[in-house]
């Protein structure tokens, strides 16, 4: 199935967001795939988080920028969409597979993100018990916001809305209001269990709440770019939401009945969600992320 096509090794690098590992990774074989989404919006897939692109008379705006070694390939892909200059980069959150190209692209564009993205990039972080060094000044967002921000660009309002404590503590969902496209960042992993960064302000239970709220705001027929996975629809996002609610419920009930994490892992999750554990986050890890989120 297409949605599981990304090799695990690549995913492991992408999702951990550890810059040092990314530098050791061979990106020479990565190709950037360009897909027209709707209106002025395109999606780029390479290695790391999906990139959203607005192209038009005002130039180019991108949402997330994958890894630094891919910057030239991303520039070449953007060139195929028009001669307009790159003006803005929006970061959906701080992880290295979404912000790795910042230092490169800040040469020509202004980087925009939630306040907590800048805070985390500016200082040393820890993820999977590994240290992520602070990013250089050139990689930091120069425009930050605490709740919402709108870029008036290519004849539409491109609106970034912060949803607290989902995948991290700095996630924004980007609404291309005229093109009817939404970039969800890593609040949405299409068809697989998501990584939720509990060490950096993420929480599974709150993520489920945020997704419910986002679904309520989505216009009919909207096209959805997930942080990871293929281009999606509202139905795909609703299924993801149902997965979140049902798997949380399974773990919550057992924890309330006094079962240990190991006992809950041994029992597993309903068959319906089995294929969701074939990505980067396996079923055992997903149960643990839920269990720890409930204890927070
Ligand atoms: Zn992420």
Keywords:
alpha/beta, 5-stranded mixed beta sheet, 10 helices, 296 residues, globular, 14 strands, disordered N terminus, binds zinc ion, 7-stranded mixed beta sheet, single chain
Folded structure, characterized:
- With 296 residues, the chain is α/β, with parallel strands linked by helices.
- The chain has helices spanning 8-16, 19-24, 71-79, 96-99, 102-105, 115-122, 204-217, 234-256, 261-267, 283-295; strands at residues 33-38, 41-45, 51-56, 59-63, 86-90, 110-114, 125-127, 130-132, 143-145, 148-153, 156-162, 172-176, 181-183, 223-225.
- Strands 1-2-3-4-5-6-9 form a 7-stranded mixed sheet. Strands 10-11-12-13-14 form a 5-stranded mixed sheet, with no helix packed on it.
- β7 (125-127) and β8 form a beta hairpin.
- It is globular.
- The protein binds zinc ion.
- Residues 17, 93, 95, 167, 186 line the site of zinc ion (ZN).
The unreliable regions are 1-20
The neighbouring-strand order within the major sheet is 1-2-3-4-5-6-9
Give the strand tally. 14
Q: Biggest sheet, in brief? A: 7 strands, mixed
- Estimated structural class: alpha/beta
Instruction: Give the DSSP E fraction (strand runs of 2 or more residues).
Output: 15-25%
Rg, Å, rounded? 18 Å
Work out the helix count: 10
**What portion of residues is helical?**
25-40%
| Ligands bound, unique | zinc ion
What string gives the helices and strands in order?
HHEEEEHEHHEHEEEEEEEHEHHH
Q: Give the distance, in angstroms, between the N- and C-terminal Cα atoms.
A: 35 Å
The global form is globular
